[in-house]
Write a structure and sequence with these properties.
Elements: H1 8-24, E1 33-36, E2 41-46, E3 50-54, H2 57-71, H3 80-87, H4 91-103, E4 107-110, E5 116-119, H5 128-136, H6 143-146, H7 158-176, H8 179-189, H9 193-197
């Protein structure tokens, strides 16, 4: 059975690539790979494959787990094993991700035979930016973006301006997209998702 919730990666990629398309205005991106800022996505480009944004696995798992918890409305904690099985994720690694989300106040976790996890915040209060910064930290794609003096060419570098625009566009999407937004979109994409979620 397919997992009830599509990978959050698909949403982030769609949003990011849509913005990147407008930012690029039809110009070919340089054939390079850069670690992209606050969500640590990787953007790569070449003449054959075009653009590709890769979301870190930790962020992907974290958002998907939060989506599963957002669908659980019966007030009962959802075991890690259930989330892992429904989302086809390795349980030990998911445990680590959920432990971080628990420490940072996104999730409430309970141990024991009847244990599991519940959202500690309303889904509308959790943005993708919050999740990515929690799980991956915040670093610039290029040091010169935050510190122009890092490179002597910063003042007259067209590439710096392009990657700064891409970074800002993606950040705007991540900051304005919440777990509640993804839940709403997923319901529209898969009418069966709520029926599946009731089996949690």
């Amino acid at each position: 059975m397919d997992p009830p919730l599509a990978s959050a990666r698909a949403y982030t990629l769609a949003f990011a690539m849509n913005h990147a398309h407008h930012v690029g205005a039809g110009r070919a991106l340089p054939a390079c790979a850069l670690k992209l800022d606050s969500h640590h996505a990787r953007i790569s480009a070449d003449s054959q494959r075009g653009n590709a944004v890769r979301v870190p696995i930790k962020v992907d798992y974290g958002v998907r787990a939060l989506l599963e918890l957002a669908y659980s409305t019966d007030g009962e904690p959802v075991p890690t094993s259930v989330i892992a099985a429904r989302q086809h994720m390795p349980e030990p690694y998911l445990d680590q991700v959920l432990a971080i989300l628990n420490r940072r106040g996104f999730v409430r976790s309970r141990r024991g035979p009847q244990g599991g996890h519940m959202l500690a915040k309303d889904p509308s209060e959790i943005t993708l930016m919050m999740v990515t910064e929690t799980l991956e930290g915040h670093t610039p794609p290029l040091e010169c973006i935050t510190d122009p003096y890092e490179c002597s060419l910063s003042g007259a570098c067209a590439q710096r301006a392009v990657w700064q625009s891409v970074e800002e566009a993606i950040d705007r999407v991540l900051s304005s997209t919440t777990i509640a937004d993804l839940v709403t979109q997923q319901r529209g994409l898969d009418p069966k998702v709520e029926a599946k979620a009731e089996t949690l």
